[in-house]
Specification:
globular; mainly alpha; 0% strand
Length: 136
């Protein structure tokens, strides 16, 4: 069974300490508006966003502890629809934290995100130049 990006982020979130959970949540909340957040996980993320400030959210440790890994899966799936840049940035967020990057799920997640990013670059280059011959 192949895990989705959302499932992997959910596993990384579950294993992360509260401070890192807050940081990951702050990153994931940025690209989405309130309307999108209301529709995810019974509105838990919209409530956090309203309490945490705009435009740069600050997620408290208490809020981060209320969020379940299954909520993160749903949030990441919505972020994937809204912003490929945010999904690409997940690899940097996870890799920048030794506490998050040390899990097996994090290693698989970063590898998967890098692979997806390369695939999108090749597709973009091919669209821009039909004679483009991707390396490898």
């Amino acid at each position: 069974m192949e895990l989705s990006v959302g499932q992997l982020v959910g596993e990384v979130y579950a294993a992360a300490p509260p401070q890192e959970r807050s940081r990951l949540l702050e990153f994931l909340l940025r690209p989405l508006g309130v309307l999108a957040l209301v529709a995810i996980a019974d509105g838990i993320f919209a409530k956090i966003r309203f309490r945490s400030g705009w435009p740069d959210p600050h997620v408290t440790l208490e809020d981060a502890n209320r969020v379940q890994p299954s909520d993160i899966v749903a949030l990441v799936e919505r972020v994937q629809q809204a912003s490929t840049d945010a999904v690409d940035g997940l690899a940097s967020v996870v890799a920048a934290s030794p506490l998050m990057a040390s899990s097996a799920a994090a290693a698989v997640l970063v590898a998967l995100l890098v692979q997806h990013q390369r695939k999108r670059r090749v597709q973009a280059a091919t669209l821009a130049d039909p004679d483009f011959d991707p390396p490898g």
